[in-house]
């Protein structure tokens, strides 16, 4: 699981709330993390592998949406690997981990492992949050026809730059002036928690707004494609809206427990004695949500692939071969228009107007295809309702 408590635990003089959750059944907790992360890792890779009889999930070269979806999955995979490695070391070498609690100890490797593994997990999941935000931005720009190859470079700069900057800044403030004195005051911990949860809260607040505006823009785009809003267009808009809803639903399910747990732990930290009887229910709720985090955080990778592509099946196709991309047929159809001789009695202005209309329709179809990528039925209906498909 991904929590700023992992870095806080690396401090020998950690706070009582962090001590409470980290010392609660550590063997069971690490086993839960390993099991959940392993299942999510295997199923995520299975989802991403090409399947027999299916076209590869690939976008047109001018779109960065497919790349963003893949990068989100890669961040989840690497984050799950970090959880598996960290929890395995904790289970296999309990004496090694016990040295973290030794103040002024001579062995620096336990603390180095603790800080390094925690930073790895935080950095990868934080980058995943930024990529998810970029996906919402890119979806809106695609509909507005403002996205292209150059935008993916900006996304890389923003995502990795902000993820590294916030992670390093939070860790530096937490461990200042040294690892042995990092929890002497809340001024060390609060900036670290803010830098950890800032991208998560950004996705919770900004993505629904961007997705809602994208859905509204999609409806206008579909209506303006042929001047009518048919049942096919209505279904396409609904499926795109459902896809965005599934993405946010997965995100809320996987990370709401973190917010609840952190709120409870901060409340316990402000109490003079967290072991008082009136706080028993709060302590129990904090421990329950702590275990839930160990289950749900690693499962984000697999659940996101279900939201992105749906269930792709078990039949893996490991043989490489060139396969046609569904929406490539639209581009090839446009290119093939020139192969058909136009009647000589057509006036040039009519031919130009049809060419412009065909180009606009193609751009609209490509934009909708990018948003409904992974949904075969949507792509088929889109192609069949396209003027290009109808031989316009």
Cα-to-Cα separation, first versus last residue: 54 Å
- Count of helix runs: 13
Radius of gyration: 25 Å
Assign an overall shape: elongated
Count of folded domains: 1
Give the biggest sheet: none
Low-confidence stretches: 58-62, 321-359, 376-392
Structural class: mainly alpha
SSE topology string: HHHHHHHHHHHHH
The named CATH superfamily: Rhodopsin 7-helix transmembrane proteins
What value does the average pLDDT take? 78
CATH class: Mainly Alpha
Give the gist of this structure:
The chain has 392 residues and is mainly alpha-helical. The protein has 13 helices and no strands.
What does this molecule look like?
It is a single chain. With 392 residues, the chain is an all-alpha fold. The chain has a single domain, classed as Rhopdopsin 7-helix transmembrane proteins, CATH 1.20.1070. Helices cover 72% and strands 0% of the residues. Helix 3 packs parallel to helix 10 and helix 6 runs parallel beside helix 8. The C terminus is likely disordered. This is G-protein coupled receptor 143. Keywords: Cell membrane, G-protein coupled receptor, Glycoprotein, Lysosome, Membrane, Receptor, Transducer, Transmembrane, Transmembrane helix.
